């Protein structure tokens, strides 16, 4: 082979090798494209399947638990719904998921059925216990799960504490027992009627959604059951819930007592210093007892010119605590008399306060002058009352006749007795004028009194002793007329007793009068002395008569006085003052003072 042939053969071999290499690369790229397409198909298919089968999970709400009693009914709506009637029923599916899932019917004839989101248990049985689930599915595909676990107790277990909706235990005097929410809500939805029971005994007249126990005592403790009777599909069902009432001992915290200041005002001298004491007493249990002063409602440390120190003392066994705050005012100013100082006691449970104001000290001279003036007025009033007591009494008597206690059924106002023996002519004439003229003209004619005058009103022929005794008993006063001879004669009679018929002093009239006045105290005695009793006075009388004169001093009548016979003279006013307030027999009225 020539050289040119060999070169041609080499070129042909290189061309075939290049073509083979190009074909190999072309097949490789085709294979890679096919593989990519296969992978893309697989990915798209998987994505399409996932988009069709994968759904988002449902929202799960908290489970609710209810313990119910056999034979009663139960109406349940998940707690998240305020008004279930506005939600379409088609969105809800109820089922019981215990050992096997049981679908809950919506047929109202079934004992357990549902109306949309509301679940009804009518006439509960123990086998109704279990877990119930409601699934709500929206049109968007979102869903929610609601769970309720129901435990039904037999009627024999009605005392089980698991059936109670808590305890009511507080220290309030008046207790409020509200009906538990499930039963209260059921009654509200179905417009039912409430009935209350205490220890399973009905309480009369209690038909509210709550029960009040006023002024609760230990005997009021027990189980209070609220029963709602409601109607569904023209049938009446009962739902109940109970609470236990327990009495908690009421803790009475003693109030803080303000010991000082005791008065609302305290005297102070302007320009001088003063200390104000604020002391408070805190009882047992008041561990944080604190006394303090406030000046015009502000703390002392915010007011210049005032200093305060506080001390606290705790008694034995911590039975009491006394806190004292001393407010020091170094120099009282005029402004301090317009300032309000407040003493406050603050404890852990209570507080108390009182206010104090400063008052200028007054000089003792004005106080002394006022005291002297008051004393002078009192003495002057007493003197006036003493001097004009008789006049005031006579002035008021006509208006107080209805309240007089001196009225009785006696016939005479006074029995007048006097002495006629052993008299000189002048004394006898004076006595005769007084007894027969002056005395009747004033007391009987002008004052309306009725007198029985010894010697004037005697009935002829009647026994003088019996007459004197009877008239004496029928008289309200005994008026004895004393003369100088009666005073001097008494000494003679005491030394040498005379017969009763020979001496007026020892006469029967005097004996009966003295007996009533001194022993029986049956009537008052009015003694009238005619003239001057003489230098010896009444000392010459025997002791019984002196005793009578000591009880009722004689009224002296001076005939020589220009107004001796005037009914409004001082003498006759004293006589009228001793006479009864109301005469036994009314005479025509006259102007009497």
UniProtKB/TrEMBL annotation:
TIR domain span: 410-579
Pfam families for the chain: TIR
Biological processes per GO annotation: signal transduction
Keywords: Disulfide bond, Glycoprotein, Hydrolase, Immunoglobulin domain, NAD
Residue ranges of domain Ig-like in the record: 254-357
GO molecular function, one term: hydrolase activity
Keyword Nucleotide-binding appears in the UniProt entry: no
SUPFAM superfamilies: Immunoglobulin (SSF48726), Toll/Interleukin receptor TIR domain (SSF52200)
Protein name as catalogued: Interleukin-1 receptor-like 1
Family stated for the protein in its record: Belongs to the interleukin-1 receptor family.
Organism from which the protein derives: Anabas testudineus (Climbing perch)
Lineage: superkingdom: Eukaryota
InterPro entries assigned: Ig-like_dom (IPR007110), Ig-like_dom_sf (IPR036179), Ig-like_fold (IPR013783), Ig_sub (IPR003599), IL-1_rcpt_fam (IPR015621), TIR_dom (IPR000157), Toll_tir_struct_dom_sf (IPR035897)
């Amino acid at each position: 082979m020539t050289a040119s042939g060999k070169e041609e053969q080499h070129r042909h071999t290189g061309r075939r090798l290049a073509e083979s290499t190009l074909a190999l690369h072309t097949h490789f790229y085709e294979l890679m494209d096919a593989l990519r397409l296969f992978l893309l198909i697989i990915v798209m298919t998987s994505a399409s399947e996932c988009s069709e089968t994968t759904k988002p999970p449902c929202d799960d709400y908290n489970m609710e638990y209810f313990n119910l009693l056999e034979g009663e009914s139960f109406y349940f709506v998940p707690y998240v719904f305020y008004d279930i009637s506005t939600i379409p029923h088609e969105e809800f599916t109820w089922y019981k998921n215990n050992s096997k899932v049981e679908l809950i019917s919506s047929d109202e004839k079934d004992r357990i059925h549902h109306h949309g989101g509301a679940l009804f248990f009518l006439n509960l049985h123990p086998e109704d216990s279990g877990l119930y689930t409601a699934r709500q599915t929206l049109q968007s595909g979102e869903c929610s799960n609601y769970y309720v676990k129901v435990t039904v107790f037999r009627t024999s277990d009605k005392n089980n504490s698991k059936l109670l909706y808590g305890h009511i235990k507080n220290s309030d005097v008046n207790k409020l027992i509200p009906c538990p929410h499930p039963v209260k809500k059921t009654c509200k939805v179905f417009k039912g009627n409430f009935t209350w029971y205490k220890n399973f005994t009905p309480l009369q007249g209690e038909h509210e959604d709550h029960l009040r126990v006023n002024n609760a005592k230990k005997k009021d403790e027990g189980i209070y059951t609220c029963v709602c009777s409601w109607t569904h599909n023209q049938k009446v069902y009962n739902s109940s819930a109970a609470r236990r009432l327990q009495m908690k001992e009421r803790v009475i915290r003693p109030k803080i007592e303000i010991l000082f200041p005791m008065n609302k005002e305290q005297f102070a001298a302007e320009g001088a210093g003063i200390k104000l004491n604020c002391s408070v007493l805190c009882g047992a249990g008041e561990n944080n007892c604190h006394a303090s002063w406030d000046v015009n409602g502000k703390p002392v440390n915010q007011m210049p010119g005032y200093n305060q120190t506080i001390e606290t003392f705790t008694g034995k066994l911590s039975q009491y605590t006394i806190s004292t705050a001393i407010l020091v005012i170094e120099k009282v100013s005029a402004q301090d008399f317009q300032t309000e100082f407040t003493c406050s006691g603050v404890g852990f449970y209570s507080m108390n306060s009182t206010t104090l104001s400063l008052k200028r000290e007054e000089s003792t001279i004005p106080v002394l002058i006022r005291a002297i003036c008051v004393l002078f007025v009192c003495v002057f009033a007493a003197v006036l009352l003493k001097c004009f007591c008789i006049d005031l009494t006579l002035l008021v008597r006509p208006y107080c006749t209805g309240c007089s206690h001196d009225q009785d059924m006696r016939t005479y106002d006074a029995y007048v007795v006097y002495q006629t023996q052993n008299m000189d002519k002048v004394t006898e004439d004076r006595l005769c004028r007084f007894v027969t003229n002056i005395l009747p003209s004033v007391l009987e004619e002008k004052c309306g009194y009725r007198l029985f005058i010894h010697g004037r009103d005697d009935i002829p022929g009647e026994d003088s002793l019996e007459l004197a005794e009877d008239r004496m008993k029928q008289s309200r006063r005994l008026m004895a007329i004393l003369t100088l001879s009666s005073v001097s004669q008494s000494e003679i009679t005491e030394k040498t007793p005379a017969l009763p018929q020979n001496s007026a002093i020892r006469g029967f009239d005097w004996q009966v009068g003295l007996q009533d006045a001194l022993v029986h105290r049956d009537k008052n005695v009015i003694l009238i002395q005619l003239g001057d009793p003489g230098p010896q006075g009444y000392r010459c009388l025997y002791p019984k008569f002196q005793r009578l004169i000591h009880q009722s001093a004689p009224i002296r009548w001076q005939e020589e006085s220009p107004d001796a016979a005037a009914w409004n003279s001082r003498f006759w006013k004293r006589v009228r003052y001793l006479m009864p307030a109301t005469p036994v027999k009314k005479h025509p009225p006259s102007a009497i003072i």
